[in-house]
Amino acid sequence: MPCNMIAPDNLIYPLPSILERLDLAKLFPKSQPLEVELGCGDASFIAEYAARHPDRNFIGVERLLGRIRKLDRKGRRAGLTNLRGVRIECAYFLEYLLPPHSATALHVYFPDPWPKKKHRKNRLVNERFPELARAALASGGVAYLRTDDEDYFAQMATVFAANPGFRLVETSSELAALRTDFEKDFNARKIQTRRAAYQLSM
Question: Known catalytic residue: 112?
Answer without folding.
Answer: yes
